[in-house]
Amino acid sequence: MLDKRMKTRRFFSAILVVCVGIAVGGWNLYSQPGLTIPDWVVLYTLSGLLILVERFRIQVGSAVDMGLEDVYLIGFALVYPTNILIWAGLVFTVVSSARIRRGWFIQAMNALGLVLAVVAAKQMYNVFVPVSEPWRVSQIAPFLVFTGVFVAVNLVAFCITLFLIYGRQFVTSLYESFSIQVLAVFGIELLIGLVIAIVLQAAGLAGVLLFTGLILLVAWSYRDYFKMAQHFKQLAIKDELTGLHNHRYIHSKMDAFIEAKQAFAVLMMDIDHFRRYNEVWGHVRGDEALKTVAELMGRNQLPEEKQARFSGEEFMILLPDYDLSQAQLRAEVIRRAIEDNEFPGAERLPGKKVTVSIGVARFPDMADNKKDLLTMVDDALYKGKLTGRNKVSLYTSVLDEMKLGLQLGNEEQEIVKTIKVFLAILNSKDRYTYAHTERDVVYAAGLAEKIGLDEERIQFLRFGSFLHDIGKVEIPIEVLTKRGPLTKDEWLVMKSHVEIGESIAKPIPSLAPCLPIIRHHHERFDGTGYPDGLKGEDIPLEARILTIADSFDAMTTSRPYQRKRTLSEAVEELRRCAGTQFDPNLVEPFIEAIGEIGLLTEENVEDLA
Amino acid sequence: MEKFSLKLWWILPFAYLSQHISIAYLSGRAYEVMIVLSYILMIAFCSLNFKVSGMPWMLGGTLANVVALAANGLRMPAYVPAVRMMAPKILGQLEAGTYGKSIAMTASTHLNFLGDIFAFNVYPQSLLSVGDILFSIGLVVLIQNAMRAGSKGRAVDA
To answer: How many CB pairs under 8 A join A and B?
Structure first.
């Protein structure tokens, strides 16, 4: 329907422009004096110049360029009579629009609008200055009248043209195309027009030809500079290998969106096991695969969608105005496209194909600044990596759940925010601990369900598991990530994290049930643990549960000071320590629960990078 | 870059030669035959190579001149005030109709706006018609293109 309306408008434009052109020509023929031979010379010259300069628009800014046609029309209008202007203008209109096959009438309307404006201005000018009197620069008042009429008629013609091209939305395009720069450009045009009039009077047509040479050379060299600038701009924002945008560009886009308070979803995508692909097939093949992935991403790309290669094998997509479910859908489309594509040599990868994991987050509802948003989408991606890869993961945080699950007052909200900051710090200090807590939550909840703990206690167990290592935020990073065995003093510092953690969570009354979990998760069943050396059933049940989950995760991931065990080795270890380190009644249910959940870390942690 | 080639380019010297001969040495019926021949050759050449850039301009210019000539008994009207300004000596010859293919422009000559009306008062002084100017523009475009086609190996960045 819209198309039909546009067609009608286009048809009407063509009819209109032809009719107006004929009307102007007819009026000129019957009411204006005929042309003498010198008039013909001026007519040829003006038409030629207009046709020539129409091809050279001078770039003034990145968005504004300056047409020279009106400059010449103004200059000639001041010196020569109306009849020459009209014939030259009509010749220019016909020739310049004949060059364009589709949409010729747009150029015709533009050109005719200019001609009408300048003719109207000239007629009004002649009301004040007799036709016979030669133009002088000092006649300022009539020139202002001339300018005013020119601007007014030009604006009306421009609006009509815009309306016929864009329909009713022309108001927005008019509004968008207007800027101070446009005014400045018009000022420049007017002044150059004056200069042309002066040159015409002083040196005749030959002078104007000389002047045109100057202007065109300027236009030409400027055009080169702008092209160059444009070229460098492209280089600065493009990723050379994939042809997508680069890291810098996507960051500046994000900044712009956040600045404008524009809601957007962000997808962070990482190719699974890409390091292995590179190792097996070499980087040349790896680059080819990256290119293919970029190409698959680009398919069905929406115009407002921004895609970039974020780093090595990480890609980022911004989806303005998308909500989370739409963003997830878009991510899923990309994920499947890549999964379904046959990459050469993919059979040497663990899944026998090239797959991607994608994290999804959204501004502003998930984070109100770029840093948090990036952390979140990164966490979401990381979580997808941890739980099996080749999937789209939404950012979720136990902490946010906690906010919803607990009826928190304002002050407590503040403290939760503080805890969030602590977690973020911990995350930046020691990525392992952070990922590890998320897995602990899953393992501990799995065991709790297995032994039939009630729902409320499970919830607090999850919160407690999530917060159990928060005290590590106070532990110096050297101790936290030390590779060799810890000294006695360092052990003391390390052990203090349970008490520190408890004191951090204490100010939130609703977290009270979590405190024993945080404090006692390093107690041992035989009473040799810390900090209180509690024994057997004296240790709170939730703490005993978390101890198993925590130790199991530590066993099955590689740590700086120990090698990673396989599932069966870990199970064996759990059984061996039943009764000493672990509650013997919990070990078997836990092993069962693990059988159902599966191991959350299947590959090397460093392979996640 | 496309390869630059002209069909039957050797027509061109003949066209010029016949035009020159007709203007400089011939008169009467012989002049008429020769000048018509020269324009036929020129138009044939331009039409054959119409696709070459610049050629439409050259053809347009030639046709404009042919029309002006045909309307005035194969003579080109020249704008008298311009001739008086540039070369007052030849005014007599012009008005007698014995100066080359030119005749004086009067109210009784036809299509005067296609006649020789552009006075170029710099060396080489000349009086041109709009057809001549269109032809020259075409020629410049043609030569420029031919030169660009010649520098094929050079990198043309931007």
So the answer is: 22
A 34-93 residues with CB below 8 A of B?
A: 35, 37-38, 40-41, 44, 48
Q: Could you give the CA distance from residue A354 to residue A350 in angstroms, rounded to a whole number?
A: 9
- The ipTM of this complex is 0.89
Q: Do A40 and B117 touch (CB under 8 A)?
A: yes
Interval A181-236: pLDDT, tens: 888 888 888 999 999 999 999 988 989 999 999 988 887 887 778 888 888 888 88
Q: How many CB atoms lie within 10 A of CB A414?
A: 13
Give the integer Cα–Cα distance in Å for A478 and A455: 39
Q: How far is CA B137 from CA A46, A48, B13, B33, B142, in A?
A: 15, 11, 19, 28, 9
Q: How far apart are CA A177 and CA A160, in angstroms?
A: 15
Structural domains in chain A, CATH included, are 2-237 (1.10.1760), 240-396 (3.30.70.270), 400-609 (1.10.3210.10)
**A224 has a chain B CB within 8 A of its CB:** yes
Are B117 and A35 within 8 A, CB to CB? no
Query: Two tokens at A238?
Result: 């493009």
- Whether the CB-CB separation of A416 and A399 falls below 8 Å is answered with yes
- What long-range pairs does A126-134 form, CB within 8 A, spacing at least 24? A126/A82, A131/A81, A134/A79, A134/A201
Angle at alpha carbon of residue B87, lines to B70 and B112, rounded to 5°:
25
Q: What is the pLDDT along chain B (158 residues), one digit of tens a residue?
A: 456 778 888 888 888 898 888 888 887 888 889 989 999 999 999 999 998 888 999 999 999 999 999 999 888 999 988 888 888 888 888 888 777 788 888 888 889 999 998 888 777 778 889 999 999 999 999 988 888 876 554 444 43
Map tokens 């059984």 to a residue.
A575
Q: Is A602 helix (H, G, I), strand (E, B) or coil?
A: coil
**Cα dihedral A146→A152→A157→A162 (10° resolution):** 140
User: Nearest CA to CA, how far is A53 from chain B (Å)?
Assistant: 15
A188-202 confidence digits (pLDDT tens): 889 999 999 999 999
| Residues 103 through 122 of chain B touching chain A, CB cutoff 8 Å | 105, 112-113, 117-118, 121-122
- C-beta atoms of B133 and A44 within 8 A: yes
Token pair in block for residue A62: 């990145």
**Residue A404 sits at the chain B interface (C-beta within 8 Å):** no
Record the tokens describing residue B21, joined without a space. Answer: 């001969």
- From B82, which residue of chain A is nearest by alpha-carbon distance? A38
